[in-house]
Design a protein that fits this description.
Blueprint: H1 3-15, E1 41-42, E2 45-46, H2 60-72, H3 82-95, H4 97-108, H5 118-131, H6 133-150, H7 154-176
Helix pairs in contact: 1-3, 3-4, 3-6, 3-7, 4-5, 4-6, 5-6, 6-7
């Protein structure tokens, strides 16, 4: 099983099946509560991100293809150490590719442009060579936690998000072990 396939499997543990909560802005095609059509989320594929898809009928295979193309490849998951790749991938899915790239760039001490390219990958490699992957993962994850806790809908979804954020470092250790 590839690192992507393992990361995808772990992601699905957090994202789960179909949900159609009215209070979740991601379930609306317009991206905010009451805006557009309430289509829901399945396997973490949201109506806000993919308003043209029939969310309820998405298959796991379709979700896998979307995640590989629109998230994993855009954050250069195959070029990152597996534990970090999982954290960045999960953040890209949950918070957006650009935001995940910015957290990675801040953690690696490089120019923040919201895109994972050669400069970011070089900075990541330098950090890993100098200090190992754990400090880089820790800094990335801490930045994400601060952001998530500051969101206005933390009071509604915070406990679930906190569980996800608490479990991710353990999953990162598992994915890094092989």
């Amino acid at each position: 099983m590839t690192t992507f396939e393992r990361a995808f499997s772990m992601l699905l543990e957090h994202e789960g099946g179909f949900s159609c909560e009215r209070e979740d802005p991601g379930n609306w095609t317009g991206g905010s509560v009451g805006s557009g059509v309430l289509k829901g989320t399945k396997f973490g594929i949201s109506a806000a991100a993919y308003p043209g898809l029939d969310i309820a009928d998405i298959t796991e295979a379709t979700a896998l293809a979307i995640y590989r193309r629109d998230y994993w490849e855009r954050v250069q998951g195959d070029a990152l150490p597996p534990p970090l790749a999982l954290l960045v991938f999960d953040a890209a899915v949950n918070n957006g590719v650009g935001q995940a790239a910015c957290w990675l760039q801040i953690a690696a001490g490089t120019v923040m442009d919201g895109r994972v390219g050669p400069q970011t990958l070089a900075a990541v490699a330098g950090c890993v060579a100098a200090r190992g992957v754990v400090p880089l993962c820790t800094e990335f994850h801490a930045r994400r936690m601060m952001f998530m806790a500051s969101l206005p809908n933390w009071r509604v979804f915070g406990l679930g998000w906190a569980r996800r954020l608490a479990e991710l470092p353990f999953q990162a250790m598992q994915i890094g072990a092989g």
